[in-house]
């Protein structure tokens, strides 16, 4: 019996369950800025993904790993008849794969799907290969550099351009407890280069995408996705960047509750 994924629970047990999936380098602790507000409306179940947080020792097989992560999540959530699902960035990409599986197996179990700054998938084989190459290069830096130097480079990527120096340093400090070896399998196994193009989910179920006004890349992705699938509920959060729940927690919680 494989070790279960770690889960942190809070909020009102009598309220509807909300499952939360953090992003790369994160953990259940990442939801702290919005925990109080979400806990008033949901029974929150924040998962630590493989290699992260209290699931640090949970490892995955060779890439691609989306199916394996989805099976681990289904095993961890088997006691929940139905739940709302929220995923941030890498966690949102995993949430898309989980939603696809649930929609095929037991669609009634997924009460709603909300993505925060998550890519729906690449469409061309060449794009996927280029992404796999880029992610391998980031992986190699993660293994070779001191972690704080990796994090300095990581949080200077374009999607994090909104971060003021103090906020960037706080992000870096919050991530310094990670184990680069432990992070490796999830990062490579759930690379965007391995992800399916799951845009069509926006036409088969209610799907909300939140992007930050100051994250031009993912806001543009959301606008293009909504143009192709007008049923996508794309909300742009004013003043926020890629990590909306950290930089605009009030607006994030309000958008989630209004979805
Ligand atoms: C830089 C890009 O993509 C990466 C950025 C965000 C994702 C993530 O999980 C970040 C979590 C955080 O540090 O707050 C990550 C992912 O989805 O795997 C991406 O690799 C980009 O330009 O697409």
Automatic annotation (TrEMBL):
<protein>
    <recommendedName>
        <fullName>Putative 2-succinyl-6-hydroxy-2,4-cyclohexadiene-1-carboxylate synthase</fullName>
        <ecNumber>4.2.99.20</ecNumber>
    </recommendedName>
</protein>
<comment type="subunit">
    <text>Monomer.</text>
</comment>
<feature type="domain" description="AB hydrolase-1">
    <location>
        <begin position="16"/>
        <end position="247"/>
    </location>
</feature>
<dbReference type="InterPro" id="IPR029058">
    <property type="entry name" value="AB_hydrolase_fold"/>
</dbReference>
<comment type="pathway">
    <text>Quinol/quinone metabolism; menaquinone biosynthesis.</text>
</comment>
<dbReference type="GO" id="GO:0009234">
    <property type="term" value="P:menaquinone biosynthetic process"/>
</dbReference>
<dbReference type="InterPro" id="IPR000073">
    <property type="entry name" value="AB_hydrolase_1"/>
</dbReference>
<keyword id="KW-0474">Menaquinone biosynthesis</keyword>
<dbReference type="InterPro" id="IPR022485">
    <property type="entry name" value="SHCHC_synthase_MenH"/>
</dbReference>
<comment type="similarity">
    <text>Belongs to the AB hydrolase superfamily. MenH family.</text>
</comment>
<dbReference type="GO" id="GO:0070205">
    <property type="term" value="F:2-succinyl-6-hydroxy-2,4-cyclohexadiene-1-carboxylate synthase activity"/>
</dbReference>
<comment type="function">
    <text>Catalyzes a proton abstraction reaction that results in 2,5-elimination of pyruvate from 2-succinyl-5-enolpyruvyl-6-hydroxy-3-cyclohexene-1-carboxylate (SEPHCHC) and the formation of 2-succinyl-6-hydroxy-2,4-cyclohexadiene-1-carboxylate (SHCHC).</text>
</comment>
<dbReference type="Pfam" id="PF00561">
    <property type="entry name" value="Abhydrolase_1"/>
</dbReference>
<comment type="pathway">
    <text>Quinol/quinone metabolism; 1,4-dihydroxy-2-naphthoate biosynthesis; 1,4-dihydroxy-2-naphthoate from chorismate: step 3/7.</text>
</comment>
<keyword id="KW-0456">Lyase</keyword>
């Amino acid at each position: 019996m494989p070790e279960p994924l770690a889960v942190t629970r809070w909020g009102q047990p009598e309220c509807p369950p909300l499952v939360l999936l953090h992003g790369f380098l994160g953990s259940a602790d990442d939801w702290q800025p919005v925990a109080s507000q979400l806990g008033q409306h949901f029974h929150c179940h924040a998962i630590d993904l493989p290699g992260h947080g209290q699931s640090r020792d949970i490892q995955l097989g060779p890439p691609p790993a989306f199916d394996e992560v989805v099976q681990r999540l289904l095993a961890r959530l088997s006691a929940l008849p139905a739940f709302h699902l929220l995923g941030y960035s890498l966690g949102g990409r995993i949430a898309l794969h989980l939603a696809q599986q649930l929609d095929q197996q037991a669609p009634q179990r997924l009460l709603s799907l909300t993505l925060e700054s998550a890519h729906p998938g690449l469409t061309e084989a060449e794009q996927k290969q280029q992404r796999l190459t880029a992610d391998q290069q980031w992986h190699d830096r993660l293994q070779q550099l001191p972690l704080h130097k990796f994090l300095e480079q990581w949080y200077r990527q374009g999607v994090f351009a909104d971060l003021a120096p103090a906020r960037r340093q706080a992000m870096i400090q919050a991530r310094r407890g990670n184990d680069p070896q432990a992070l490796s399998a999830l990062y490579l196994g759930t690379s965007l280069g391995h992800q399916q193009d799951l845009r069509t989910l926006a036409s088969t179920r209610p799907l909300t995408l939140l992007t930050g006004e100051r994250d031009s890349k993912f806001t543009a992705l959301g606008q293009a996705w909504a143009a192709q699938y007008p049923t996508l509920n794309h909300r742009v959060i004013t003043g926020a960047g890629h990590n909306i729940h950290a930089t605009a927690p009030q607006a994030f919680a309000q958008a989630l509750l209004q979805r």
